[in-house]
């Protein structure tokens, strides 16, 4: 089989890469007992059918992440898998509040992740950026406190983001923390238009001033918004297998990805929470190729978009784009 096409992963929650084997290993290392008899039992629990059972499992398993080493192990395990999937550059989300709420300091999280990321170019042949996300179902005050706690570590952070439950938590709630981040020289991204309406995408653009929209698939319901996104070439980090698993679409064959490409949008394909949603980066490329009948040049365009939409420096971006152009399927 041909090697996977070189690509950048731009929508990846590091907590969503925790596989059962590592969950058990970390639990043992921390003297914890998981409420699952075996890795197979846990693997079966990953076959959840709705958002709430996903979130219950997601937060239950996060308790195994305690020390700097745990976060380094988590990121290193992801990077190992990512390389096998053709990922050459990864912009990785983490949720500090999911850890600080359990008493794990934000510095522990960032230092642990950074250790694995610093080793990644040599060890895995992958460049990286780190994106600190705020949980939008928590208060704006909590996001502001978390940002201040992370301030001593901002040289490790490229961008801030906004994730978790979209409905009822519009982007404008977080205007202040996004202003602070921009003043600090950080890029901005936000989940919007996944389960929430196109109005959330407008707010992410016009109130938060985001450089990229995560998901954004529901933008297609608003022709004016589509025109705006196309004119400005705002990148959208689309996650097909996640959309299928969380029922944003009923069948992958119904996914709006081809319509988004036809509309001239800067679309990328990503994996979101791959250990829970059934696939890493190349698995998502393969799934859309098969379900939507995408041809090789469309797949190459998606891979090019992933580097174009990244926060890479121009020289490195050009190097990767040449690798994409030279790829033989
Ligand atoms: Zn996401």
TrEMBL record:
Transmembrane region(s): none
Binding site for substrate: 273
InterPro entries the UniProt entry points to: A_deaminase_dom (IPR001365), ADE (IPR028892), Ado/ade_deaminase (IPR006330), Metal_Hydrolase (IPR032466)
Pfam families xref list: A_deaminase
Top enzyme category: hydrolase
Enzyme Commission (EC) number: 3.5.4.2
Annotated Adenosine deaminase domain residues: 6-326
Biological process annotations from GO: adenine catabolic process; hypoxanthine salvage; nucleotide metabolic process
UniProt-listed CDD domains: ADA (cd01320)
Signal peptide: none
Keywords, ordered alphabetically: Hydrolase, Metal-binding, Nucleotide metabolism, Zinc
Site description Important for catalytic activity, residues in chain: 215
Note on how the cofactor is bound: Binds 1 zinc ion per subunit.
Function in brief: Catalyzes the hydrolytic deamination of adenine to hypoxanthine. Plays an important role in the purine salvage pathway and in nitrogen catabolism.
Matching HAMAP family: Adenine_deaminase
Official protein name in the record: Adenine deaminase
Source organism: Streptomyces reniochalinae
């Amino acid at each position: 089989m041909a090697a996977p096409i070189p690509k950048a992963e731009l929508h990846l929650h590091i907590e969503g890469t925790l596989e059962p084997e590592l969950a058990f290993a970390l639990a043992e290392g921390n003297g914890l007992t998981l409420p699952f008899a075996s890795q197979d039992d846990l693997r079966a629990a990953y076959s959840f059918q709705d958002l709430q059972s996903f979130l219950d499992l997601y937060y239950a398993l996060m308790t195994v992440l305690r020390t700097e080493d745990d976060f380094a192990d988590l990121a290193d395990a992801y990077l190992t898998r990512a390389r096998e999937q053709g990922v050459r550059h990864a912009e990785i989300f983490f949720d500090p509040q999911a850890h600080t709420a359990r008493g794990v300091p934000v510095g522990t999280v960032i230092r642990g992740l950074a250790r694995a990321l610093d080793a990644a170019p040599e060890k895995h042949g992958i460049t990286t950026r780190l994106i600190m996300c705020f949980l939008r179902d928590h208060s704006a005050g909590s996001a502001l406190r978390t940002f201040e706690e992370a301030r001593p570590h901002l040289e490790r952070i490229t961008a801030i983001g906004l994730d978790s439950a979209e409905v009822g938590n519009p982007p404008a709630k977080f205007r202040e923390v996004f202003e602070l981040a921009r003043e600090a020289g950080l890029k901005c991204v936000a989940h919007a238009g996944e389960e929430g309406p196109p109005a959330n995408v407008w707010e992410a653009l016009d109130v938060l001033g985001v450089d990229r929209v995560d998901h954004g698939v529901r933008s297609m319901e608003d022709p004016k918004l589509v025109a705006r996104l196309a004119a400005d070439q705002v990148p959208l980090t689309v996650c097909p297998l996640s959309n299928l698993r969380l029922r944003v679409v009923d069948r992958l064959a119904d996914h709006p990805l081809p319509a988004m490409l036809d509309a001239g949008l800067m679309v990328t394909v990503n994996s979101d929470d791959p250990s829970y949603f059934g696939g890493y980066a190349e698995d998502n490329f393969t799934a859309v190729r098969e379900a939507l009948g995408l041809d090789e040049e469309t797949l190459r365009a998606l891979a090019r978009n992933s580097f174009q939409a990244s926060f890479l420096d121009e020289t490195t971006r050009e190097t990767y784009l040449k690798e994409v152009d030279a790829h033989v399927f």
